[in-house]
Amino acid sequence: MAVQAYGINHVVIEVDDAKKAVEFDSDVFNLEMLRGGEGAAWCKLGEHQFLAMFEVENTTPDRMKHFCIMVRNEAQILEVLDKLTQKYGLAIEPDSTCDFRDPWGNRIQGVDLHDESLVWLLPYREIQDLGISFGDRPDARAREEMD
């Protein structure tokens, strides 16, 4: 049987202060802390994923490695940008809409649903409750025929 990946369960980032990292991510992206303690924290990120933060003595920023957080719309991207630049004094990466480095050097990208395929909506309960399905799209039928 072929392996079927369903998505990403979690992303882990390094910080030097987990409590401050939770405060930052809760403020900027309205993330809810699931649990934490002893130099680590886990925050709910969407319906099925979480962001884990672990304290390390020295954080080491990378050039391009990053992860992307998706928000609902352009207005929310603008709210994120305002908090990043005005409240936290962070710079937005050149030639990007909402790529930035958090206070620990982790590169994070922000996009809204407009920037992505509608297929990204499928895991969200509000879409499922509306009965929206993308199974009738020609590209979905083509994938089924390949299986």
What does this structure look like?
Helix content is 28%, strand content 27%. The protein contains four helices and seven strands. The radius of gyration is 17 Å and the shape is globular. The chain has one domain: 2,3-Dihydroxybiphenyl 1,2-Dioxygenase, domain 1 (Roll). It has a four-stranded mixed sheet, with helices on one face. A three-stranded mixed sheet has the order 5-7-6. With 147 residues, the chain is α/β, with parallel strands linked by helices. The N and C termini lie close together (11 Å).
> What share of residues is helical?
25-40%
For the terminal residues, how far apart are their CA atoms? Answer: 11 Å
Strand content: 25-35%
CATH level-two architecture: Roll
Largest sheet composition: 4 strands, mixed
Number of helices: 4
Number of domains: 1
CATH level 1 class label? Alpha Beta
CATH superfamily: 2,3-Dihydroxybiphenyl 1,2-Dioxygenase, domain 1
* Average pLDDT taken over every residue: 83
Q: What order do the helices and strands follow?
A: EHEEEEHEEHH
SSE class: alpha/beta
CATH names the topology as: 2,3-Dihydroxybiphenyl 1,2-Dioxygenase, domain 1
Low-confidence stretches: 136-147
Number of strands: 7
